[in-house]
TrEMBL record:
Residues 527-651 form the Nephrocystin 3-like N-terminal domain. It comes from Panthera pardus. Residues 676-837 form the Nephrocystin 3 helical domain. GO terms for cellular component: ciliary base; ciliary inversin compartment. The gene is NPHP3. Its main location: other. This is Nephrocystin-3. Keywords: Cell projection, Cilium, Coiled coil, Repeat, TPR repeat, Wnt signaling pathway.
Length: 1211
């Protein structure tokens, strides 16, 4: 039997059934909480009642009648009495009442709790409704905020658009105003000329001086018979006597500007330039590149070795011990070095290739002892006796006691010795140890490379490490401008190669259209030169540039030739940066140039407008194959903006890839060649190789049937067709190849035929495989592969095999040289190699991996060159190797090299490919530098570390991360102050860079303090008139101008200008001098041949160049040589002799040798009077400067009191 608790339901009071007894019991409701006593009583009552019910039969009394007896009997049986029963009943009633009270109270509590729960539910619903309302309000406010921000950005965009439109309208108005002002000036000038001519006609008996021949178009002086002077001005006549300054004002003649104090008379690229305006000389000199041979502008030092069996040990020693040293020296200066040699060719199988190598070589060394084989005589004659360009040559002659050299050697040495003194051949006679002789050769070769080939002034310059104290940072000569000389050399070589074709291809009709564009009134949109692939667009533009440089020397031409897609030359930001730097160079500016591509697009039109305002002639911008540039419409949007009145733009595009928006521009379309022209080109190409084609082989009908489509009539196809025919004629299989050529219906199929013919001509399968691999490596590279890199990649490759292969591929228009690298001549050649050898993507990946392994090995040897930084990151990007690219970029020297060469956009694109933003990139660079700082020790390493910190700071500044840029720049400053000296010039450099960050940050007080410290250090280190001082003064002037302190800014700017002006007279323009000096040396080399009018002209130009550098003695030598050569070649009465006389007189005038100058001027005047028309400008030019000379002499004699000579001079 259980307890009462077992009968209680957990849910509260429940009705349960008592199961005691067989007959069952009465169901009752048991409360949740009861007292034990009451439970026991009630249980006893229930048991008693159950027993009574069980003992009663069917006739028993009702419960009410007999219940008491039963109950009493029950109690009696237990010994209980009536009072106890009554007490129990009373107790029962009491408990029952308590129970009722308890039940009622609990029910009330339950009701109260129910009401409270309902109230809480209502409150909860209300709060939930309020929460939902608040959420809706929040979402509404958030949307309103986003709308407000979007409206703000739209307003900012509209404001920027408005600013751009306003600037555009201002430029349009300026162009319109300049056009109208020029027209008004032309009308006023014409009016004055007519008035003066009318007055001369009316003045009878009066000797007049033609105003058109006076010193200024705005200050025209008429000299009357009585000696009085009258000046005609637009505002009336002034009676005062003109000063010497007014007599030498700027004047505009048909030959271009004659600047103040300009007494040098020169025609051609140097027309009337002045020492005070060096930028014009730079502009002119930069446009004479067609005069130079390829070897003078190559980025490779090619040393060609000729030797015999007797001198084989010397050659082996030179190649083993000294060739690597020369290679490292050239690599340090950014050049390749190749020591090229052929085995002793008994069968002369490499004869044509050897001749080609001698023509390309920068230096030829001949090693001889006692005999000279006859098979080498032709090479020696080509290298030493012909040598039309006067390249350096060296002969090593080993002597031996008791033995005499052969007659052939003696004859060669005598012939070389009898050449003129200007020949570069040097003979080294050596007797003794061959090791000492080879060392002598090394010393001479090193000197020749530095002085004669590379044009360095200091021949004792030693190769310096990157972090050495004395190594000058590359950008020091250029201020804050980052310049890549390799890009410039590549463009020069591309221009020369594009213009080397001997076939004009009927371009005369196109030249006139281009000339009409230049002469057309502004404003006009760019001219579109369109044509199919290989139609000759590059050739047309390059030929026309040459004509413009010859016929219009005052026209400034800025050109850019775009190579294949994905190459450096097709990078839009580098194109804009290069053109902007050219504009800055011609503007004689040293301003810092932003590297941000978006800001470059804004800077370029401003520099163009600035230069156009001061340039006296036209400015022509030419971009070839502009459609190869990625996102060309986005990056070249300046083309659709209005240009200054004297600026013209010409771009060439492929018809198929021309942007649709540009098709509305004026277009010059290159038509396909007609069959007659195609046939003449093919026959001319074959004749150049001594191949004659019979009428049966090439008939007009066959060509007409073949040349029906545009693809078989374009210039490249026809040229390649002729070269394939000429090669087949030499090989003796002309008919077979001709039949195959007629089956080629486009340029690529013809290229594939040429490729297969070259491969079939190779001697063995190894050479064929090498040819395939070399072409594939060049194809997958970024900018090409050098010959030295190929020699290291394939150690089994010999120079004879490599140069023979390159010679064959070059002759068939497949490969060419660019900046010392092997590249494809045309895009179609690149596509041909892809189709022929690399259709499987895995093949492309394998060749890329081969280049990656090679350049990675170079980096592991600490050889961080411009080649490894150009190729390796790009190859990682093409392979999709993000982690390897990331590790490569964290090589600080790789990033430093890319940044210092101005490849800012490439560096950013690499980091974007890795997936890092600017801040993450900056943090990783800084952490890497910190790690390097822990591992590096020693002064030299610390200086190198300071350079890396400075580069990082400048890079972050250009990215706009000014707060992060301060930390590495400050660290660079601390290291340099500790490792060098607080007053070292490099400390001034750090102060300057740190100040530039504060200027951008608008913390002008800090920047001013740092600039002044840098100025003080620079003055103590360099002196008060060094260009570095001008740089700091210019920075201070800019700083004060930003603070609206215009008086202080003008003061510092004037001081800076005076310093730069003096430095320019001594050295030349800071941007162009190193390059110009090298070109001057090369011009000098070009004059070492025979006496010709062109060489005399070049000597005259050299004299002008040295005059502009204030090197009057050297200028005098060249001008005298020019005069002597012209008198010998042209005769003493030729007008060109008058030009040289005029220039010599100007030099004497500069030296204050007035008597000698007077004699020379009079000789020049006498020649020009007899040879030229009375109204010729050159005659007036000489009269003008003679008059200026007389006025100087009169003033000088009057000052000295020499009245007798004064009277004679005035008479």
């Amino acid at each position: 039997m259980g307890t009462a608790s077992s009968l209680v339901s957990p849910a509260g009071g429940e009705v349960i059934e008592d199961t005691y007894g067989a007959g069952g019991g009465e169901a009752c409701e048991i409360p949740v909480e009861v007292k034990p006593k009451a439970r026991l009583l009630r249980s006893s009552f229930r048991r008693g009642a159950a027993a009574a019910a069980a003992g009663a039969g069917p006739g028993s009394l009702p419960r009410g009648a007999g219940g008491g007896g039963l109950l009493g009997a029950s109690f009696k049986s237990t010994g209980s009495s009536v009072p106890e029963l009554e007490y129990a009943a009373a107790e029962y009633e009491r408990l029952k009442k308590e129970y009722e009270i308890f039940r009622v109270s609990k029910n009330q509590e339950l009701l109260s709790m129910g009401r409270r729960e309902a109230k809480l539910d209502t409150e909860n619903k209300r709060l939930r409704a309020e929460l939902q309302a608040l959420q809706k309000t929040y979402q509404k406010i958030l949307r309103e905020k986003e709308s407000a921000l979007e409206a703000k950005y739209q307003a900012m965009e509209r404001a920027a658009t408005f600013e751009h439109d306003r600037d555009k309208v201002k430029r349009q108005f300026k162009i319109f105003r300049e056009t109208k002002e020029n027209e008004i000036q032309d009308l006023l000038r014409a009016k004055r000329e007519l008035e003066s001519k009318l007055q001369r006609l009316q003045a009878q008996g009066i000797q007049v001086f033609d105003p058109g021949e006076s010193d200024s178009d705005d200050n025209c002086t008429d000299v009357t018979a009585a000696g009085t002077q009258c000046e005609y001005w637009t505002g009336g006549a002034l009676g005062s006597e003109p000063s010497i300054g007014s007599m030498i004002q700027l004047q505009q003649s048909f030959r271009g500007p004659e600047f103040a104090h300009s007494s040098i008379d020169v025609e051609g690229p140097f027309a009337n330039v002045n020492r005070d305006d060096w930028d014009v000389a730079v502009a002119s000199l930069l446009q004479v590149t067609p005069l130079f041979s390829h070897s003078l502008w190559s980025n490779t030092v090619r040393c060609y070795l000729i030797y015999t069996d007797e001198t084989q040990p010397e050659v082996d020693l030179f190649l083993k011990d000294y060739s690597p040293k020369l290679k490292r020296m050239c690599e340090t200066m950014g050049y390749f070095f190749h020591a090229i040699y052929f085995p002793i060719d008994l069968e002369n199988q490499y004869l044509a290739v050897r001749k080609w190598e001698i023509e390309k070589s920068s230096l030829v060394i001949l090693f001889i002892h006692l005999t000279l084989p006859s098979l080498l005589l032709e090479d020696c004659e080509e290298a030493f006796l012909k040598n039309p360009e006067g390249k350096p040559r060296l002969i090593y002659h080993r002597l031996e006691d008791g033995k005499v050299s052969s007659n052939s050697i003696q004859q060669l040495i005598d012939q070389v010795s009898n050449l003129n003194k200007t020949n570069k051949a040097k003979i080294i006679d050596h007797s003794g140890d061959p090791t000492e002789g080879v060392y002598k050769i090394y010393i001479y070769v090193e000197k020749i490379i530095k002085q004669d080939i590379l044009g360095f002034e200091n021949t004792d310059m030693e190769t310096k490490d990157l972090g050495s104290e004395d190594s000058i940072p590359e950008e020091d000569d250029f201020g804050d401008v980052l310049w890549d000389i390799h890009d410039e050399q590549e463009q020069m070589e591309t221009f020369q190669q594009a213009s080397n074709s001997a076939h004009e291809l009927g371009f005369d009709k196109y030249y006139q259209r281009l000339n009409d564009l230049v002469a057309a009134p502004a404003p006009i949109p760019p001219l579109l030169v369109s044509g199919g692939p290989g139609s000759g667009k590059s050739l047309l533009l390059s030929k026309w540039i040459q004509l413009q440089q010859k016929n219009s020397p005052n026209t400034l031409i800025l050109s850019h030739f775009v190579g294949r897609p994905m190459s450096t030359s097709s990078e839009p930001s580098l194109i804009i940066k290069r053109l902007t730097l050219k504009l800055m160079q011609h503007s004689w500016s040293v301003s810092a140039l932003t590297l941000d591509p978006a800001k470059l697009l804004e800077e370029f039109p401003r520099w163009l407008e600035k230069l156009s305002a001061r340039h006296q002639g036209s400015i022509i911008i030419i971009i070839d194959s502009i459609d190869q540039v990625q996102q060309v419409e986005k990056h070249m949007k300046w083309l659709i903006d209005p240009l200054p009145v004297n600026v013209r733009v010409i771009v060439s595009v492929n018809v198929e890839t021309c942007p649709p928006a540009w098709r509305l521009w004026p277009t010059l379309h290159l038509d396909p060649l007609n069959p007659k022209d195609a046939k003449s080109i093919i026959i001319a190409e074959c004749r150049s190789m001594d191949i004659k084609l019979s009428k049966e082989q090439v008939s007009e009908k066959k060509l007409e049937r073949h040349c029906r489509s545009a693809t078989t009539c374009n210039a490249l196809y026809v040229t390649l067709f002729g070269k394939v025919m000429a090669r087949a004629g030499r090989a003796g299989n002309l008919d077979k190849i001709l039949h195959q050529c007629f089956q080629c219906q486009d340029t690529i199929s013809l290229y594939r035929l040429a490729l297969r013919s070259i491969q079939e001509s190779l001697a063995n399968d190894m050479d064929k495989e090498l040819m395939k691999q070399i072409l594939c490596l060049i194809n997958v590279s970024h900018n090409g592969v050098s010959e030295s890199e190929l020699m290291e990649l394939y150690p089994e490759l010999s120079w004879a095999v490599l140069t023979s292969l390159i010679h064959s591929l070059h002759k068939m228009c497949l490969l060419t040289y660019g900046c010392g690298l092997l590249k494809f001549q045309h895009l179609q050649a690149w596509e041909t190699v892809r189709l022929e050898y690399m259709e499987d993507p895995t093949i492309i990946s394998s060749y890329r991996q081969k280049l990656i392994n090679y350049f990675t090995m170079q980096l592991s040897r600490d050889r961080v060159t411009w080649r490894s930084t150009d190729e390796l990151p790009w190859l990682f990007q093409q392979q999709g190797s993000k982690q390897k690219l990331h590790d490569c970029l964290l090589n600080l020297f790789v990033s430093q090299n890319l940044y210092k060469r101005g490849h800012f956009a490439d560096l950013l694109s690499y980091w974007q490919f890795v997936g890092k933003d600017k801040s993450a990139m900056a943090a990783e660079y800084f952490d890497s530098l910190k790690q390097h700082e822990k591992n590096w020790e020693g002064e030299e390493n610390m200086i190198c570390l300071a350079d890396l910190y400075e580069t990082l700071g400048r890079f972050l500044r250009d990215l706009g991360l000014l707060s992060q840029a301060v930390v590495p720049l400050q660290r660079s400053l601390e290291i340099r102050e500790t490792a060098l000296d607080p007053d070292h010039p490099r400390v001034a450099q750090s102060l300057h860079q740190l100040a530039s960050v504060y200027v951008q940050w608008k913390k002008f007080g800090n920047a001013e303090q740092l600039y002044k410290q840098a100025l003080e250090i620079a003055e103590n280190a360099y002196g008060a008139e060094h260009p570095h001082i001008a740089r700091e003064l210019e920075a201070l002037a800019t700083l004060y101008q930003k603070q609206n302190k215009y008086e202080q800014a003008e003061h510092f700017r004037k001081k800076s200008f005076k310093i730069r002006q003096k430095a320019t007279r001594r050295k030349g323009n800071s941007y162009g001098f190193a390059l110009l000096r090298r070109r001057a040396l090369q011009l000098e080399e070009l004059t070492l041949g025979k006496d010709t009018p062109d060489n005399a002209r070049t000597l005259n130009e050299l004299g002008v160049l040295y005059y502009l550098q204030n090197n009057l003695e050297t200028a005098d030598q060249f001008l005298k040589r020019s005069l002597e050569m012209r008198e010998r070649v042209l005769g003493p009465d030729h007008p060109d002799c008058a030009q040289s006389l005029n220039n010599l007189a100007a030099l004497c005038n500069e030296k204050k040798q007035y008597d000698k100058a007077e004699e020379l001027y009079e000789r020049a005047l006498d020649i020009r009077r007899r040879a030229l028309a009375p109204d010729h400008p050159s005659l007036a030019y000489t009269v003008k400067h003679l008059a200026i000379l007389y006025k100087k002499m009169i003033s000088l004699l009057f000052f000295r009191g020499n009245l007798t000579k004064l009277y004679l001079c005035m008479s």
